[in-house]
Every structure is written in structure tokens, then in C-alpha cells.
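The instructor's notes for this session suggest beginning with a concrete chain rather than abstract definitions. Hand out the sequence below and ask the class to guess, before any prediction is shown, which regions might be ordered.
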Amino acid sequence: MMESANADREIAPYLLKTEPSEYSFADLQRDKETIWDGVSNPVALKNLRGMKSGDRLVIYETGSVKSAVGTATVVSVDASDTKNPRVKIKSGKALTTSVNLAAIKANKVFSDSALVRQGRLSVVPLNEEQYRELTGG
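After discussion, reveal the predicted structure:
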């Protein structure tokens, strides 16, 4: 089963967190594509399993960076192993201006977002307005 059962839904935006010392946005740009894995939180796993090909992504670097830094797109989703869904993503572009955590927390658009409410969640669904605020688009 390569795609989720959500094949008829609209393209959705998500934010993926990564520790830049382990795998940075620059690494994704170099590699062009990667399998997004290493997720263990049940809510984050549910969000990964809910993704579909074409979904838009914002890459957020944690650690000392704490900023949204780039974009990516979901290429394919294999959720047949519910504990380890395999989501292939491809690199997009670096954001013209990175958006740091302080700016995100200060923006009322994110007041009800899991990005702010559940700070340790590594795969966060976004709404269209939140995606535009982060990407400038």
C-alpha cells in the first residue's frame, strides 16, 4: 500500500522538525530526496501516515537554529508498517527569510497550532495560513 486512504483529499501542508547536526536542510538539498524516519511519537507517526504524495512541507531545524528554513514535497508514502511509515520527500527551496521560534510563538496565526502547544512534536500539520506565514507564499 503506497498511498494512504486519503487519496481524495486536498494537498495538505505539514512541518517536519529535524536536528541539523543529524540531518539538516542542507543535507536534504544535497541528497535531493530522502526517507523521513526516526519518528517515535504516536501523534507524529499518525501525522506521517496521513500524508500523501504532493503534500507540501516546511522543514524546521531544531537545536541551536530553532527556525523554519526550507520547503520540501512528499513524493510517496508507504504506511504498511504503522510503526515505521516510509515517507519519501524531495527537497524544495530554502526560505528567503527563516522564521524563528520566537516569531512563530508571537504570531497569532499559530496560537492553536501543535507547533506551539506540543513543542516536542516532530511532525506537525499546518493550515494554509500557517504555511503561507512560514514560507512567505
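Then share the key points. The beta strands are 13-18, 33-36, 56-61, 67-78, 86-100, 123-125. The chain is about 25% helix and 35% strand.
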